[in-house]
Every structure is written in structure tokens, then in C-alpha cells.
Amino acid sequence: MNNNPANGVRIPARDIPFPESISTEAQATLRRMVNADGVPLNALQSPPHLDDIDGWIRLKASVDAQYGSAMTLLAGPLLASVETEQIDGATVHIATPTNLVADDAVFVDLHGGGLVFGGGTACRVGAQMQADQLGLRCWGIDYRTPPEHPYPAALDDCLTVYRRLLQQYPAQSIVIGGRSAGGNLAAAMVLRARDEGLPLPAALVLLSPQADLTESGDSFTLNQLIDVQLPGSLMSNNLLYAAGADLADPLLSPLFGDFSRGFVRTFIQSGTRDLFLSNAVRLHRALHRVGVPCELHIFEGMPHGGFMGAPEDWELRSEMGRFVRSCLPSAS
Which candidate, 101, 154, 230, 303, has a CA 20 to 30 Å from the CA of 220? Predict the structure, then answer.
């Protein structure tokens, strides 16, 4: 009898093959994102020290430029027009598609980027992409980020824009969506709006949401280095964003919110190789337990952020579009 049980499962050193159960395009994306030794290219980078504010500012400028270029390339030709406005100090890119299917509904897009990166060009292009794909006017909130603007600046910007939207649209005609860090802010927006007594939107779309800044889920260990897009912890980003606030606060980690007090219909997506898979699974269970309508879509072999244009990504867009239309009758 073992009187000193192990604290986990020991796995021998081995290579994890790319799955043949996904499309050839998806397999090619996974292969492009590792070096000749099989190490994810993104794992070769390390963030500045938490106190190196100038280093974070330089890194943010560099990543935002790269992210903007990558989003522009991924988007291809964009038909939606876009205007940038300031709303009580918050920046928002308002994209209007040529195929507008409902003038009385709006989609709010919150960009990803680890709560630090992804503003500017990437945010604007993301709003245009969503407008084209959904046939809806899209408001992309270019929220403020650290190190210059830590928590709660980003969430303040989101609520500022949401209050303006409520002056122009009925709450039931608004859907809020977010990718990664944007998923964090989207869910936190609803929790804060509820607590402030504001009308809640029709629904949420959370794509691989960064819902737990404490990084307590199983996949943060299990999918470490398996996720070629996000191979390791974002704790440095999380601490920079929180600026001393409790990472377990539901407005920083909405996974820990009290959903029994009211929430909205939710669409959640992740992949079996996503570092944030546990966030999606646990959030779905938390909502399901209290009767909040929620869909969970897990894609085979998918890392954080998807496959960058493989058939699986188009399937996800189709599912997301169906969900949004079902929540906005005027867009059906």
C-alpha cells in the first residue's frame, strides 16, 4: 500500500503528434507554429519584468503592429465601412456592412490580446470582419490597456460605450462578443451592468474566454506547450492588468461570478488544445447549474484563437452567426 500518494500523474517525455482528425489546413497551421525541434515559436518569447513599464510599452507597440498586420492579412477584402468615434473618453470603431440585415440591432466586439495588446488596427479590422460576417452594425471597443491604464480602465470604457448603446438600441437588440481577453471583458460587462441595474443585452458570444485570471483550471497545466498559439501562462499580463486588485474578483475573473442573480444567454467556444479550455468548460457548467441557457462548442485539435482560416474556423463562424441571429429576431 502506498502511504505517500503522488500529487499528479507522471507522463514520460514524448512528442505529441498533430492530430489527423482535423482538416489538412488546420494541421498545416499547427505545423507552421513550431520550430524544427517541435517547440512552439510563441514559447520562445518572454514578457518584461512586471516593474519594467517602458519595456511593456515597447512590447505593446511591437505586438500591436504585428497583430494589426496579421488581422489585416487574415481578414482579406473588407466591405464594411468604419468610423472611429470618442464616447466620453472611450474609443469605438463603428463598422457598417454593405449587407446590413437589421438596422435596429448591433453587435459589440471586444478584441483579444491578453488584456494588454490588440488595440488600434487589429480592433478596427476585427469590427469590420464581424460586421461583414454577421450583416450587423458592429461597435468595436478600443478599450484602454495597461501599463498606462490598468484595471478598471478597460471595463470602464466598455460600460461607457454600453450606456451610450442603450440610448440608441433596446437592450434586447444588443449582443456582446469577445475573443480571449475580450471574452473576459464581455462577461464582466454583464456582471457589472447587472449590479448597476442596467438592462442586460440579449446574449453573449465568448470565444476562448480568458475568464479566470487566477489560471486555476486543469488545462493550464495539461495544455501547456500543447497550445501552439498560447503555450504558457499569461500571469504577467494578468498581474499588470490587475495592478494589485484581487485576481479572483468576478470583475477580473468572471468565472467566479454569481450567475444565479441573473445573466444572459451565452455561446462559448474553445478547442481541445486551447490553454483556456478549462475556462470554457467551467464557465459552461457554472451557467448550466443555475439554468442560464448556454451553448458550448469544443473543436478538435484547436489551439487558442483557432486555425487562422481553416474549415473549422468557418464552421465556428457559421455556428456563431446562427446563434446571434437566433437571439436577434430582426436579424433572422
Answer: 154
Tell me how many degrees the CA angle 136-257-198 measures, rounded to the nearest 5.
Answer: 50
pLDDT at 20 over 60: yes
Chain-wide mean pLDDT for the chain? 96
Does residue 100 lie within any of the structural domains?
A: yes
**What angle is formed at CA 303 by the lines to CA 257 and CA 234, rounded to 5 degrees?**
55
Structural domain includes residue 2: no
Q: In what order do the strands lie in the sheet with 265-271?
A: 81-87, 90-96, 137-141, 106-110, 174-179, 203-207, 265-271, 294-299
> How many whole angstroms separate alpha carbon 33 and alpha carbon 21?
18
Q: Is 261 inside any structural domain?
A: yes
Q: Which three cell numbers stand for residue 82?
A: 468604419
Percent of the chain with pLDDT over 90: 95
Q: What is the pLDDT of residues 93-117, one digit of tens each?
A: 999 999 999 999 999 999 999 999 9
- Whether residue 138 has pLDDT greater than 60: yes
What domain range includes position 153? Answer: 48-331
Grid look-up 487589429 returns 122
- Pairing assessment for the beta strands 294-299 and 265-271 based on DSSP bridges: parallel
Q: Does residue 27 lie in a domain region?
A: no
* pLDDT at position 331 over 90: no
Task: Give the phi and the psi of residue 286 in degrees, each rounded to 5.
Answer: -60, -40
Give the CA distances from residue 288 to residues 24, 64, 195, 279, in Å, rounded to whole numbers and listed in that order. Answer: 34, 36, 21, 14
CATH of the domain at 255: 3.40.50.1820
Q: How many residues does the chain have?
A: 332
Residues 206 and 183 sit within 8 Å (Cβ to Cβ): yes
pLDDT 10s digits, 165-185: 999 999 999 999 999 999 999
